[in-house]
Amino acid sequence: METHGFQTRNQYGSLFFCPSCGNLLDALSEQKVIVCNQCGDSQSAQLFESFEVVTKSAENAFNSPLKLKRMLVQQTKKRETAATIKEKCPKCGAPEMSFHTMQLRSADEGQTIFYNCVKCGYKFSVNS
């Protein structure tokens, strides 16, 4: 179905927003003018012809059993290769924890150390 030289958003599932107030516009129809229900601004339907609709989804938005299993394997491998230290877990008392560091604050301050218990998975951080 084509309307004014472009295919309607219903076919693609894309959303269009009012350029004036950002309100979600009603589905494009046979009308040549689209009126925003929020601010009353009217736009020519042709304005939306050249819009390129790009959609992105989070990596875990559509989980499948295979994807979940792969993610679990990757997390396990990451834990196995992480640096470890003889630090007692405050939750379960395990004698060893894995850790990594990141510079989250300004350069003249210390790093943040992230600890992860290899036994129970408890996580905490310390600013050094």
TrEMBL record:
<comment type="function">
    <text>DNA-dependent RNA polymerase catalyzes the transcription of DNA into RNA using the four ribonucleoside triphosphates as substrates.</text>
</comment>
<feature type="binding site">
    <location>
        <position position="36"/>
    </location>
    <ligand>
        <name>Zn(2+) 1</name>
    </ligand>
</feature>
<keyword id="KW-0862">Zinc</keyword>
<keyword id="KW-0240">DNA-directed RNA polymerase</keyword>
<keyword id="KW-0539">Nucleus</keyword>
<dbReference type="Pfam" id="PF01096">
    <property type="entry name" value="Zn_ribbon_TFIIS"/>
</dbReference>
<feature type="domain" description="TFIIS-type">
    <location>
        <begin position="85"/>
        <end position="125"/>
    </location>
</feature>
<feature type="binding site">
    <location>
        <position position="92"/>
    </location>
    <ligand>
        <name>Zn(2+) 2</name>
    </ligand>
</feature>
<dbReference type="InterPro" id="IPR012164">
    <property type="entry name" value="Rpa12/Rpb9/Rpc10/TFS"/>
</dbReference>
<comment type="similarity">
    <text>Belongs to the archaeal rpoM/eukaryotic RPA12/RPB9/RPC11 RNA polymerase family.</text>
</comment>
<dbReference type="GO" id="GO:0003899">
    <property type="term" value="F:DNA-directed RNA polymerase activity"/>
</dbReference>
<dbReference type="InterPro" id="IPR034004">
    <property type="entry name" value="Zn_ribbon_RPA12_C"/>
</dbReference>
<keyword id="KW-0804">Transcription</keyword>
<keyword id="KW-0863">Zinc-finger</keyword>
<protein>
    <recommendedName>
        <fullName>DNA-directed RNA polymerase subunit</fullName>
    </recommendedName>
</protein>
<feature type="binding site">
    <location>
        <position position="117"/>
    </location>
    <ligand>
        <name>Zn(2+) 2</name>
    </ligand>
</feature>
<feature type="zinc finger region" description="C4-type">
    <location>
        <begin position="18"/>
        <end position="39"/>
    </location>
</feature>
<feature type="binding site">
    <location>
        <position position="120"/>
    </location>
    <ligand>
        <name>Zn(2+) 2</name>
    </ligand>
</feature>
<dbReference type="GO" id="GO:0005736">
    <property type="term" value="C:RNA polymerase I complex"/>
</dbReference>
<feature type="binding site">
    <location>
        <position position="18"/>
    </location>
    <ligand>
        <name>Zn(2+) 1</name>
    </ligand>
</feature>
<feature type="binding site">
    <location>
        <position position="21"/>
    </location>
    <ligand>
        <name>Zn(2+) 1</name>
    </ligand>
</feature>
<keyword id="KW-0479">Metal-binding</keyword>
<feature type="binding site">
    <location>
        <position position="39"/>
    </location>
    <ligand>
        <name>Zn(2+) 1</name>
    </ligand>
</feature>
<dbReference type="InterPro" id="IPR019761">
    <property type="entry name" value="DNA-dir_RNA_pol-M_15_CS"/>
</dbReference>
<feature type="binding site">
    <location>
        <position position="89"/>
    </location>
    <ligand>
        <name>Zn(2+) 2</name>
    </ligand>
</feature>
<dbReference type="GO" id="GO:0008270">
    <property type="term" value="F:zinc ion binding"/>
</dbReference>
<dbReference type="GO" id="GO:0006363">
    <property type="term" value="P:termination of RNA polymerase I transcription"/>
</dbReference>
<dbReference type="GO" id="GO:0003676">
    <property type="term" value="F:nucleic acid binding"/>
</dbReference>
<dbReference type="InterPro" id="IPR001222">
    <property type="entry name" value="Znf_TFIIS"/>
</dbReference>
